[in-house]
Fold this protein.
Amino acid sequence: MILFLFLLWRIFDFLIIFFSQKVIPYLGFFPYGDQLPGFNLPTWISSLANFDGLHYVLIAKNGYSQFEQAFFPFYPLIIKFLTPLFSNNQLLTGLIISNIAFLIGITIFARSYKDSNWFIIFLLAFPTSFFFGAVYTEGLFFLLLISTLYFLKKERYLFVIIFAFLASLTRFVGIFLIIPIILHWIFRSFPRRWESRLSWIPSFEGMTPKLFLTLLAPILGLLVYCSYLLKTTGDPFLFLTSQPIFGANRSSHLIFLPQVYWRYFKIFFTAAHDFRYYISLTEFLMFNFVFIVLILDLLKIINLKIKKLKSYKLQVISYDRLGLNLFSFANLILPTLTGTFSSIPRYSLFSLSFFIYLSQIKNHFIKYLIVGVFIILHILLLGFFSQGYFIS
């Protein structure tokens, strides 16, 4: 079933790209776009490296150029290492890595989550799910994220250390894997500490060196990259300070959510109704939809935990869902601190609690309706993205 859904998703996306070339005028206004033909792939394949994808390809090929340190290193390093296996074609290598990693990721998720089919349907239908199969970090990071959570639940901490470390070398949001890891550590001691009425206090009882290193793993990955940046550029936070260079109205200093809302309300009431206006509207609506669903999911988790606390059956409390929900919130809110909802449709892909909540909706009509809306937006966004329009 997983392989069938994956192949259906791939065929569907390639058909969208193929027909979009016939009906949507090509724009292609992004850096290094003129280098795409040099990879000798059909345009309906190479277009999956538009925008940021080309940066990853060129980093793998030539190393970092000025300001490209905004892109974390693990994905281009893998591309560079595996390129000789695929005709020395970095773009093709990136596509293969992304798709295989994503397929393995959803397979692991299906093994760890009982009712996974609806989750995967919502995930694949989501308007920007095509980034999982593009030359972007989404496919690889999904595998690292799911693997970290899977082995954390199994208490196989060596694998957690490896995958959490690599996750924060792939995307900055990987550092927030410390949230589910900390909750795992705290709740792990609950059953033993309930009798002393100190269950709410974190305990160091049973804290082995391996478990302690598990806590540090997401931070260590980021520290390694910061150390590299300090040595090569003199700025350990260049991945943040270089963000405004890439446009999208990003700021290098913190801007809080109320200010972002104010900015978008000004856009809606003053800006011309061009393509960028409707992309801003899409970003705004998608952020709020995901945000509201995450709040509903959190309330559902809290309500369930309260019922279990009252029954004193602390050993059956599912802390992994709470950790995933809080990680999903951090993943969604973090990009808004740069002062914009830009790319939120893409970043939302890792707010996994959003998809879990949708998969648990009991009304099938609502499920089909949401999937239908997702597919329509998926067709539109992928069509324009493949033709060189910035959509996320």
Remarks:
- Confidence is low (pLDDT under 50) at residues 192-201, 312-317.
